[in-house]
Amino acid sequence: MSDRVTVTMDGGVADVRLVRTDKMNALDAKMFDALVATGEELKTQKGLRAVVLSGEGRAFCAGLDMGNFAQMAGGGRDPQSAGSGGTNNLVAREYGIANKAQQVCIVWQQIPVPVIAAVHGVAFGGGFQLTLGADMRYVAPDTKMSVMEIKWGLVPDMAGLLLMPGLARNDIMRELTYTGKVFTGAEAKEYGFATRVCENPREEALATAKEIANKSPHAIRGAKRLLNLAQHADAAAILRAETEEQVALIASPNQVEAVMSNMQKRAPNFVEVA
């Protein structure tokens, strides 16, 4: 819990909320720190089954805090800033292959359970890139989204160029990146950036998360590992990984429980992942 991000747990579902409502959840240094810290903590959270990521107030996330742009316009760069205003932190690889700004988005893929971003209001620039790290994106139809960095003379630098290609066509990515066009949630679905368009994204995301939480946690985690691998590995590696995951699951306690609960038409009682 912090003054930037809060987390509540219910039935294995982590409800993660950006709570800098007075600034439409804009990304300042404290928000960068809070998002990375939250993601890193959730990686090892016992009993975790699914995560919903959303923003309180009027917006999901308005992007980089305006104070950073003011510093750039004045020729100043704060080395403590984790966003595009902080050269030192951008160059440093603090998280394996990523800097802190990139880890803000990548960390959600590293969490071993599904993550659903529930998006409303606006998701601009870094806020848009934050949605890309989730497994799924539920978006309100009137949400305004943009790869907005070009407006400020910048390029996407929070893993957007790593994450967008798995969702949208190359020419769509180029048009949005070159123009900074603002598009709606409905258009995001057409482009490939929205999984589902819904009037109440958070409510539907929580419902899906609860559904996932009722499935075998070992199978869910195995499926996420496979789906992450499938984004970059070759055919042989993917096929081998499929086999390894399945061999580990067959006749395991939770796999047996999944079969028995279905046959007996009752709620499952799964063993948590150690």
Give an overview of the whole structure.
The protein has 12 helices and 9 strands. The protein is α/β, with parallel strands linked by helices. It folds into 2 domains: 5-212, 2-enoyl-CoA Hydratase, Chain A, domain 1; 216-263, Lyase 2-enoyl-coa Hydratase, Chain  A, domain 2 (Orthogonal Bundle). The two termini are 24 Å apart. Helix 1 (29-43) runs parallel beside helix 4 (100-110) and helix 10 (217-229) runs antiparallel to helix 11 (235-249). Residues 79-87 have low confidence and may be disordered. Helices cover 43% and strands 14% of the residues.
How far apart are the first and last residues' alpha carbons, in Å?
A: 24 Å
How many strands in all?
9
Work out the oligomeric state of the chains in this entry: single chain
Question: CATH homologous superfamily of the largest domain - what is it?
Answer: 2-enoyl-CoA Hydratase, Chain A, domain 1
Residue share in helices?
Answer: 40-55%
Given the structure, what is the number of helices? 12
Rg from Cα: 19 Å
Strand order of the largest sheet: 1-2-3-4-6-9
What's the rounded overall pLDDT mean? Answer: 93
The total tally of domains equals 2
Strand content: 5-15%
H and E string: EEHEHHHEEHEEHHEHEHHHH
Low-pLDDT stretches: 79-87
The CATH architecture term of the largest domain is Alpha-Beta Complex
Task: Provide the descriptors you would attach to this structure in a database record.
2-enoyl-CoA Hydratase, Chain A, domain 1; 12 helices; 2 domains; 274 residues; Lyase 2-enoyl-coa Hydratase, Chain  A, domain 2; alpha/beta; six-stranded mixed beta sheet; globular
